[in-house]
Queue: 3 jobs
Job 1
Amino acid sequence: MNDSHMALLCALHDEHAAPLLRYVLRLTGDDQLAEDVVQEALLRAWKNPDVLAQGPSAARAWLYTVARNIVIDDRRSARARREIGLETVPERARSDPTESALDSWLVADALTQLTPEHRTVIVRAYYMGQSVAELAELLDVPAGTVRSRLHYGLRALRLALQERGVTGR
């Protein structure tokens, strides 16, 4: 490891360790596990110097993706679920509620980054099923303003999710 690689790793840690720990703590609710996940994500960055060379924004996205995947892998493990192995595989695959829950937490965390106006219209339109006309009346603004807030709010939400390592599916 050369000095520039070490300097990049230190800068990566200094800039991203604390926010990454808060993010993982929201996902896990477990201080010790969150610290272990952040340590593992930073260790993987150290082992993968190409990540460091991509710049701070790409490195941050990579770290959040790695941390999220570590949490998902931990939750899926037999140890986490306290499962006993089966000799036969179940006939019907079940959806993974852990990934769905983590996605929900990730979106909720990203929503906190939006302005109150954007957050309000997104939550009321997409989660509460309110129409543009209903929102315009409720918020006492023109329907065009509601549509504009939805457009720019979704754009800001997409950026907030990308900062957390979520890419388009």
Job 2
Amino acid sequence: MKVLIINGPNLNLLGKREPSVYGNQDFDFFFDSLKTKYLNVDLEYFQSNIEGEIINKLQEVGFSYDGIILNAGAYTHTSIGIGDCIKAIVTPVIEVHISNTFSRESFRHQSYIAPNAKGVIIGFGLQSYELAIQSFL
């Protein structure tokens, strides 16, 4: 099984950025622990702060991978383009968020990804990614 995790803007700062909201663990370290735990899953990771690069990556893998776990960060609430791309590809996408977006600012309650995603996992910290992996298994 081949699964790609895509993180959007500012998620490269995990462990440093607003630890009260996002925790203090570096994502690379967490990703390594996922790869160790799920040896039967070919896990890959991609991060970009640029919307078009995320769309390009979705198009690149969206017809050949078994699953995509997407935390589009702020683009979740603004990017019709990413939402349309998910609708256009065949690989199932699970939308994840580290924080509970519904307990935050009202603009974070809207997702352009959710209507086209297989499912949404919100508010379980970094464990949201692991829950998404388990959903593909």
Job 3
Amino acid sequence: MANNTGYQDIEDCEATNKALYKFYAAVMIVIFILALPLNASVLHLFIFKLKFWKSNTNNIFLFNLVLADILLIFCLPIKAYNYIDGERRSDKDAICKAMLFMLFLNRGASIAFLTVTSIDRYFNVVHPGRKNLLRALKKSPHISILIWLLLLPLTIPTMLKTFECCNSHSQLPNGTKEDTLVKDVVDSMREVVFFSQIIIPFVILVYCTVHIVNRLRKKTVGDTTKLRRAVFLVTSVMVVFSFCFLPCTVARMVLLIARVKPWPEDWQDKAAVAFDGLMVLSYVDCLLDPLIYCFCSTKFKSIYLSSYFPFLVKGNGVPLDSSTGNTTQPSRNNVI
């Protein structure tokens, strides 16, 4: 096979454009520096100010969302170190698999809780009087535990069989037919998980957004503040989701096509570099998720500002409610 050496070079963990990967590393370090204290402060607020476990509202979902973000943030220094060292992935199989496990689990959890929050708002706005399973389950923290447990099987493909530098559908220069078949099956499972984690929730988010917006348009009488906030919420989730996850999904699809065809070696390398860069972009989700908490409720913003930025609070110590123009009294009950 004349191209074996070329394919092996592509599948090596060494980055071909070291300067660009150092830039990627710098971006991840900046995200880490900004996102860690931001999410830690939100986590502190949920635990010590809101006491989320006593709430029957979306607080439980949002607490798990910030928890997933924090766990994902801790992966960034390791990836940044690899990039600075000139490696696309760790050349150590255990570290490579552990990183994939954490990324699959925590990104999946982040997407899942974003989606569940939007579904819950959809039922509250579009079907306010209808009983639904989610409304019954969200009164218990067990629904959050169940979501985490359901995500665990999706990480199994990341732990099966050694694969070169965590790449899928790479060419095996000296592999047997049986080895190639097993590798293709495992790789395909991993890719199915990757795409299903993004495409299925995106379809659900589009559905919820369209119906909530239509509900707002049909609302001709009565207080529309709740509907507007619901629209702000689902719109912000859609924007964050589209900005952070859809580009890397498209890039992943292009990269897989480049490997399966296969495309020329330099094209495959460019596709891999583009995918890695857009994956770095997806980590900005950890910075944008806290904005969603504010869209969920101005009361959450009020408590956050009064707790951590009291100098921004108006004279009587209560921040201004941006949706009504009036002051709001922070309440620890039913905040979100």
